[in-house]
Every structure is written in C-alpha cells, then in structure tokens.
User: What shape does this take?
Amino acid sequence: MSTLIIGNPAPNFSGINQNETPVSLDSYKGKKLVLYFYPKDDTPGCTAESCDLRDNYERFLAAGYEVLGVSPDTHTKHQKFIAKYELPFDLIADTEHTVAEAYGVWVEKSMYGRKYMGIARTTFIINEAGIIEDIIEKVNTKAHSAQILK
Assistant: This one.
C-alpha cells in the first residue's frame, strides 16, 4: 500500500477544505499533525472514526496535535458532515485524489468481486519538522484516538 515509511519527510500537499480555503502541509509547519485518510463522509466506519477524533480533540490539542481529515468527498459534503457531527477540525476535499496518491493511499480495492479505486483508511502522524513519526494502517474506527495517543 503506502510506500512511505516512518522517518520519511511527509509529502507536501495542497487542497481546499470545507470552506474552499486552501490548506497545505506548510499550514501546519511547526505543529504536530494527525493526517487521517478515510473513504467517505457519513458512512458508519468513517463517522465512527471522525466522531472518536472529535470526542478526543481536546486531548489532541493538549498534546500539541492538530487534526486534519482527507477524503474524496466535495467541500459541500464536508460542510454537511462537519455540521451534522460538530467536527472541530478541517476536512480536505481531495476530489482529484492528489493528496491520497501522494501518500500512497489511493489504491485498488475489491468488494463483492468488483474492483475499484478508493482510499485505504490510513493515518499519518507528522511531527513539527514535517517528518512522519507513525503510520497507522489498521485503524480501529471506534478507538482511533487511543491508537494515536498511545
């Protein structure tokens, strides 16, 4: 899946968030970042993961982390998802999959024998210097914060 490994510089990226505001890795320079990739807004697993991060958001801030989600959904879908679940962090609308491809998480998937391209649910922990400190590929959507804040 991901060709990135712990210790690699995190690939720079740029995209737009739910408010159509540009966001890039440089926006988080000097801060620790939880960059989580998820397949789709408002689906059971993605909602559980995002709400777990929301419920522990103050713990992330206290530990010096910012949180940023990435999915192929549009900024409009992100706005609705954020409003519905009161998410306190930004979501990137990666409709062209450029951020997911840069991080190696845009992959071929299979469901019921049908193959398609999609996001492999993955989280990257990036330090203040832009170096990948951890990669979580086996995400527990209901307890993802515990995986990150171990």
In short: The mean pLDDT is 95. The first helix runs from residue 44 to 55. Helices lie at 44-55, 57-62, 75-85, 98-102, 144-148.
